Amino acid sequence: EKAVNLKKDLAEMQEWMTQAEEEYLEKDFEYKSPEELENAVEEMKRAKEDVLQKEVRVKILKDNIKMLAAKVPSSGQDLATELNVVLENYQLLCNRIRGKCHTLEEVWSCWIELLQYLDLETAWLNNLEERVQMTEKLPYKLDAVNDALESLESVLRHPADNRTQIRELGQTLIDGGILDDIISEKLEAFNARYEELSHLAVSRQITLEQKLQTMRETDHMLQVLQENLAELDRQLTSYLTDRIDAFQIPQEAQ
């Protein structure tokens, strides 16, 4: 009777493993929204816990069959053969579910990381847009133009590492057919805004550099003119002090 019960337990265990494999490993999943992906991750976590909890039952079956084999070798031998099959299938099921759970967790982590990088770069784009807008109405002062140029250049020196991560993470998920529509839309919008703002910022940078150069040249010309006028004023003052007649001084002084 005990052998019959153990044989029944082994059959039930095998049946449960077959159902678990069909439910968790053979279904075709499509992850078209973050909610679907997150639900799949949670489901596989529960599946992993469910399978691992059966380890206690498998151990009890193993111990009982060993005890029976020691008492009744003939019955125990047949059950031991069936047990080995069940143990092998159980270990395979555990490994496959662990693997799928790990894969889905990695995919979810990849999605979250992509969102974080997009948030960082969006904040940078907002800052860049703000700096560009600040250059639109500048007072005609050398210091103001110089400060605006330095401020814009400091933002433009932003490293490209984050954009590289966005491109690689997005492509990895899209290649796997995971959230491909959503990610493609997000990347398209981000890239379009990045290209527009970066080109506008570089164009504004060139304009400010040219304006700054013109203002410096003008300042230099004014400085030279002021120095010449000051020298002329000194000479004329000297002539007046010495009471020199106008016809006795050089033509340009007259």
Write up this protein:
The protein has helices at about 1-25, 35-70, 75-135, 140-155, 160-175, 180-240. It is an all-alpha fold. The chain has a single domain, classed as Up-down Bundle (Methane Monooxygenase Hydroxylase, Chain G, domain 1). The chain is rod-shaped, with a radius of gyration of 40 Å. Pfam families: Spectrin. This is UTRO protein.
- Describe the largest sheet: none
Number of helices: 6
Might you state the CATH topology name?
A: Methane Monooxygenase Hydroxylase, Chain G, domain 1
Q: On the 0-100 scale, what is the average pLDDT?
A: 88
| N- to C-terminal distance | 137 Å
The helix/strand class is mainly alpha
Tally the beta strands: 0
**Assigned CATH architecture:** Up-down Bundle
Query: Secondary-structure element order, as H and E?
Result: HHHHHH
Supply the CATH class.
Answer: Mainly Alpha
What does the radius of gyration come to? 40 Å
